[in-house]
Design brief:
The complex is a heterodimer of chains A (278) and B (292). Chain A is 72% helix and 0% strand. Chain A is built from 14 helices and no strands. In chain A, α1 crosses α13 and α2 packs across α13. Chain B has 292 residues and is mainly alpha-helical. In chain B, 74% of the residues lie in helices and 1% in strands. Chain B is built from 13 helices and two strands. In chain B, β1 and β2 form a beta hairpin. The chains are: A mainly alpha (278), B mainly alpha (292). At the A-B interface, α1, α3, α4, α5 and α7 of A face α1, α3, α4, α5 and α6 of B.
């Protein structure tokens, strides 16, 4: 191994420590028992009195399972709606000629330019007007959480790009065989754009899973909290109990970490397509 | 009949997405302008038209200017570092080294973990008796700093978290672009006896210019919208030291229920982001880069 390589590894190790260090420190704090000083000088990374009591303690007091289920419902339906609506809308934009196509294209493009934060107030008032709030019912609450994010320009453009890459001959052959437009979309095009659908699903899932601002605005009932809202709440519930807060934060991280490590090649390779997130 | 239905087919495909975008984008978008001319202060259910009052109040509020200034400090502090550091990291992890994939994954982990969790983790590191103060004291004999509680440091401490969380994301964008740089150009500069820095300045940077522009545009727009980090770590404090424009909008709208005033602030943010986005679109058209 030459000097250059050693140097590269040193820098890489430092970067890795900076990247995951904060989580390791959180984990270390969560594993320390009540008798151990978490403010010890010097700080102790490996717990002296290793314990899981913070995890069980926080699990008992915080309805994590409920938060996780809520997050799964919200993220899952958000993904399904995004796949369906983006694939539907992208199809005519990629493969048909119709009046107003340019206008539609630019209207979709325009949505990229306006951040959600700018229009969240009228969206909130809209959701109230439609009574899509958790005080009405669980269903209405979920609808209010999900519908504003049911489709976006990123998804439509991603699917459009995928449809554009399919050779015209396939479409022509299907027409000769007597397929109607809907059949062509469902049976010819959809199976061919599976990679794009997978990319869209993964990025939409992660986005919906970590969404914090909107749920924290619309949710009023604790039973409806999604995971990020629930975790933030830990700070209020356990004001200075850093062992519990850390344990809760670690528990909350496990699902998405498993998801990421399982699909990491899609993230690190797939982002070529997903270069523009919002 | 057949012809009739065929003519409407494209619109049927577009309809579901159109309903969502109209209901939750276009109508709210137009409404945000209308709201900015109304006051919700006296009665949340019966807003009154107040003309330019919200804007006048806004421009006379020192807090508004403070949050605007903070937002620009955020932008200026975060964007260049993200643009440059993620490129350096991308070049570093683009080498053929054993175990390089594991390093890529580790650097990407902050991107994937909820910003709420990241905020909590950093709050713990930044704590008065936290590990950062300890290390600084031991290594450099610096006395305790209130990273999140001292108005001089709070904003910068939160900025560091944004940078930390963004590096992996932009690294991956750069990595994708790096594969398109022709290898023989590096060989040529090796023959010329260029060192590593010269090589990348002469070959990598010019080739990656469109990506560098893209990264700076995306990171600028997300810097303008920063919210959760602040919400979790400082709540905009102390003394508004870390309050940015989106946080201010959130607070006025959903804590003070002053929707009209908050909408006026939203319109100002919109104008700023629009200007930046127009640059964005111009860039896309120029480079003919697919949006997605």
């Amino acid at each position: 191994m030459n000097l250059k390589k050693i140097l590269a590894y040193i820098v890489l190790i430092i970067l890795a420590i900076i990247s995951i260090g904060p989580f390791l420190w959180l984990l270390s704090t969560a594993l320390k028992s009540q008798n151990e000083n978490i403010f010890a000088y010097p700080p102790i990374l490996i717990p002296q009195q290793f314990t899981l009591e913070n995890f069980t303690g926080v699990w008992k007091q915080i309805p994590f399972m409920g938060y996780i289920i809520n997050s799964f419902i919200v993220s899952g339906i958000t993904v399904l709606l995004n796949l369906l609506l983006s694939a539907l809308a992208a199809y005519p934009l990629a493969r048909m000629r119709f009046k107003g196509k340019n206008m539609v294209f630019y209207a979709v493009l325009a949505t990229i330019m306006v951040p959600f934060q700018v229009i969240m107030i009228p969206i909130y008032l809209m959701v109230l007007k439609l009574n899509l709030v958790d005080s009405a019912s669980d269903f209405a609450g979920f609808a209010g959480l999900i519908l504003p994010f049911a489709v976006n320009a990123f998804g439509i453009f991603l699917m459009r790009q995928a449809f554009l890459g399919i050779p015209k001959e396939l479409e022509e052959a299907a027409i000769i065989d007597g397929c109607n437009t809907y059949d062509i979309w469902l049976k010819i095009f959809m199976p061919l754009v599976k990679p794009a659908l997978a990319t869209l699903a993964i990025f939409t899932f992660v986005g919906a899973w970590s969404e914090f601002l909107w749920p924290s605005i619309v949710l009023t009932r604790r039973e409806m909290y999604t995971l990020p809202v629930g975790i933030n709440d830990l700070q209020g519930v356990f004001s200075a109990n850093w062992r519990y807060i850390s344990a809760g934060a670690i528990i909350a991280t496990i699902p998405i970490l498993v998801f990421f490590l399982g699909l990491q090649r899609y993230f690190i390779e797939g982002t070529t397509q997903g270069a523009v997130k919002e | 009949m057949y012809k009739y239905s065929k003519q409407f087919t494209p619109y049927l495909f577009l309809a579901p997405a159109a309903v969502i975008l109209v209901l939750f984008f276009f109508v709210p978008f137009l409404e945000s302008f209308l709201l900015s001319f109304q006051s919700y202060r006296n009665d949340i259910y019966n807003p009154q038209w107040v003309g330019l009052e919200n804007y006048i109040n806004l421009f006379h509020a020192p807090v508004f200017w403070k949050t605007l200034a903070n937002t620009f400090i955020y932008l200026i502090g975060v964007v260049p570092l993200l643009v440059v550091l993620s490129l350096v990291i991308a070049i570093l992890v683009n080498q053929k080294l054993r175990g390089i994939k594991i390093f890529r994954v580790m650097i990407y982990i902050p991107v994937i973990v909820s910003i709420v969790v990241a905020g909590i983790a950093w709050k713990w590191i930044y704590a008065d008796s936290g590990i950062l103060n300890y290390m600084l004291e031991k290594l450099f004999d610096i006395s305790k700093i209130g990273w999140l509680t001292d108005p001089r440091f709070a904003l910068y401490s939160v900025m560091a978290v944004t940078i930390w969380k963004g590096l992996g994301y932009y690294m991956v964008i750069y990595l994708a672009a790096l594969t398109s740089v022709p290898k023989d150009l590096y060989e040529a500069s090796d023959i010329d006896g260029a060192n590593v820095l010269q090589k990348h300045l002469a070959v990598t940077v010019p080739h990656l210019m469109p990506t560098i522009t893209l990264v700076s545009v995306i990171s600028s727009i997300s810097a303008m919208k920063v919210f959760v980090e602040i919400y979790v770590m400082t709540q905009g404090g102390p003394l508004n030291a870390s309050k940015t424009i989106v946080y201010y909008i959130y607070q006025r709208a959903f804590e003070n229920l002053d929707m009209g005033y908050a909408s006026a602030a939203g319109v100002v943010l919109l104008v700023i982001v629009m200007i930046m986005s127009i640059i964005n679109v111009k860039f896309f058209e120029q480079n003919k880069q697919p949006i997605a």
